[in-house]
Amino acid sequence: MGRLCSQVLHSVSSTQPSPGNTPSSSSSSYCLTVTSSLTNFTCVCVCVCVCVCVCVCVCVCGVFRDPRLSRCLTFSRDGTLFGWCNGHSVSVVKSSDSSIVSTFDLPKTALLEFSPLNGVLVTWQPYTKAQDSPQGEANLQLWDLHSGQLIKALYQKKVDSWCPSWSDDEKISVRSVNNELHFYENNDFNSIANKLHMQKVSDFVLSPGGQPSKVAVYVPGSKGAPSFVRLYQYPVLGGPTAALANKSFFKADRVAMQWNKKASAVLVTASTEVDKTGASYYGEQTLHYLAVNGETALVQLPKNGPIYDVAWSPNSAEFCVVYGFMPAKATIFNLKCDPVFDFGTGPRNAAYYSPQGHILVLAGFGNLRGQMEVWDMKKYKQVSKPQAPDATHFSWCPDGEHVVTATCSPRLRVSNGYKIWHYTGSVLHKWDVAAGSELWEVRWQPFPEGSFPERPVKYQAAPSELGTTQAPPTQAYRPPALRHLPATPSAKLHEEEPPQNMRPGVSGEKSLSKSALKNQRKREAKKAAKQESKSEPEPQSDSVPITNSQSEPSSGDPEMDKKIKNIKKKLKAIEELKEQQVSGKVLQKNQLEKIQKEEQLLKELEELQI
Fold it and tell me: Tens of pLDDT along 81-119?
């Protein structure tokens, strides 16, 4: 443990800001927690201070030292408290000075969570049974952080939805019990204030913000009936007209539901385990929109393929979807589910909005190379394009200026470490885990909303001793036999689409309907064709123009002429395929089979022309 701390301390300053206080406008401080394994467990909290001159220094604001193996760690929502379990007990400390708040004798704790106002600490441990206790022990505990007393012990066998959900003011909390929802008020978990009785509630999401609280519930389909998602407003949970909105759909084995920040709408990503069309190995996904005013819609995605990620903008007025077979598309939609801006195609599978919503990062992690595209969301202009290979974690700093990428175990057990970036692509700090060690988790210290105001987007790279890592331009694969030849556009395996603004009237034109726009394009094409015909000089010839009927010899038998024409058409298509094959394009199986039929078609044509 001392070995790791000395490595961090050697690279940091001795200045100690106060992360528990609201940062000033001239300088900001925020905390990064790193969990790593050496011989023993070590949890280090590193604070990064950003000055006005964008000069970044790293300093220790509080070091939580524990030589024992850690099971879990978490910050409170406002970042003032930090808790972890070391396999012997659960400890809660203040982030500002590391002073102990509470300690609980819970050696088997695997998950921790604070309530929004830090009134309750929730701990969960795996459910077990003993010979003297066939029912098992209550494995979900709720603790009063002010007194340290146990509020309630409950049974929670499944790890899914293990933690109760709270409204931001802690007036309402809800948990799923035996496929129904139990509501509690004012942290009184000894009495159920209300219930949502519905057959087989599989998942739910409580809305963010204060009152009135809303809840989105999902019920999977059965016996030919469709699945559905419904929105309710507490406490009106019963009756045929209680639902604010309802959306039914087939093809859903599971769903992911996301409220926007204002709690006015929900995005539902419905997924199936198997794609019956055979187009995708990973199943099939659809995206649905539900609003609390009753509006529902299926979000139409222009490109076929899986939906990799869906993210609401913090302004709650638009959302980003990353979708389609690789290279994937990314599109911004408004609340009418109309496309606003298309980022084109690229190697990406994730979208991350900054906390202020002024910057969007489109990234390709996992089995992709780690390319990140940083976009200014007010101008729809790309800021930078850095690359973080082998990254398994990405998160925004609360200041909206910095991000952290990390390679963590067990996703990857080699080359573990993390990097702190400025959004302009500069690497400001880098830390690699020693050989034989693993990095388990990296997370920023949260801050209350409004602590960091939005700053103007800069396009010039921030100064850094570590420099930038811009992604190198990618090139299409070319077979060895064609590498000595000049590259041609047809050699590309995938044609990439450029970004495009899809808002009507962005170039000063009036907004037109689809039919009017179609007619306008027809008129423009007709006008262009007429001008082109006028510009070409007419051939000076006294000969009679040859008609189509005279251009090809006729056999006198209309049926035979038709067969000859069809064969010539097929031969022409084969010639085009052969040209594509020579240029390096990889042909599909059915295209190769067409080429093999060339000799047979030539023989048939020869017999017909005799």
Answer: 999 988 888 999 998 888 888 999 988 899 999 999 999
Based on C-alpha coordinates, what's the Rg of the chain? Answer: 31
* Both structure tokens of 35: 């969990």
Q: What are the structure tokens assigned to 389, written together?
A: 């290979």
Q: Specify whether the CB–CB gap between 237 and 196 falls below 8 A.
A: yes
Three-class secondary structure of residue 148 per DSSP:
coil
- Beta-bridge partners for 271: 254, 285
How many whole angstroms separate alpha carbon 82 and alpha carbon 101?
9
CA distance 383 to 361: 10
* This prediction's pTM: 0.70
d(C-alpha 270, C-alpha 267), whole Å: 10
The highest-confidence range among 146-155, 246-255, 309-318, 594-603, by mean pLDDT, is 309-318
Q: Are strands 100-104 and 90-94 parallel, antiparallel or unpaired?
A: antiparallel
How large is the average pLDDT for residues 157-179? 89
Domain-located, residue 570: yes
Nearest partner of 53 among 71, 86, 28, judged by Cα: 28
Per-residue DSSP letters for 456-517? ----SPPP-SS-B-BPPPP-----GGGTTSPP-GGG-SS-PPPPEE--TTTTSPPP--HHHH
Between 543 and 79, whose confidence is greater?
Answer: 79
Q: Is the per-residue pLDDT at 386 higher than 80?
A: yes
Q: Residue 308: is its pLDDT beyond 90?
A: yes
Query: How far is 522 from 509, CA to CA, in rounded Å?
Result: 17
Matching residue, tokens 């098992």: 136
> Percentage of residues in the chain with pLDDT exceeding 90?
30
Alpha-carbon span 384 to 380, nearest angstrom: 12
Q: With contact defined as beta carbons under 8 Å apart, do 190 and 152 qualify?
A: yes
With 50 as the cut, is the pLDDT of residue 363 above it? yes
Residue 605: inside a domain: yes
Residue with tokens 């987007």: 457
Give the tens place of pLDDT for each residue, 432-469: 888 888 888 888 999 998 889 989 998 877 776 666 66
Q: Is the pLDDT of residue 543 over 70?
A: no
Distance CA 334, CA 32 (A): 34
The answer, yes or no, to whether the previous bond of 504 is cis (omega within 30 of 0) is: no
Least confident of 180-194, 285-299, 499-513: 499-513
The total number of structural domains that make up the chain: 1
The torsion defined by the Cα of 276, 281, 283 and 284, in degrees rounded to 10, comes to -80
Region of poorest pLDDT, from 185-189, 313-317, 370-374, 481-485: 481-485
What pLDDT, on the 0 to 100 scale, is given for residue 420? Answer: 93
User: Which letter does DSSP use for residue 99 in this model?
Assistant: -
Please, what's the largest Cα pairwise distance for the chain? 111
* Inside any domain, residue 279: no
Task: Based on DSSP, count helices (H) and strands (E) in the chain, helices before strands.
Answer: 6, 37
263 alpha-carbon distance from chain centroid = 20
Q: Among 245, 273, 242, 241, which Cα is nearest to 259's?
A: 245
DSSP secondary structure code for residue 133 in this structure: B
Q: Which of 215, 282, 279, 278 is nearest to 254 (CA)?
A: 282
Strand order in the sheet with 285-291: 254-259, 265-271, 285-291, 296-298
Answer whether residue 266 shows pLDDT above 90. yes
Give the residue numbers spanning the domain of 602: 561-610
* Within-domain flag for 354: no
End-to-end C-alpha distance for the chain, whole angstroms? 91
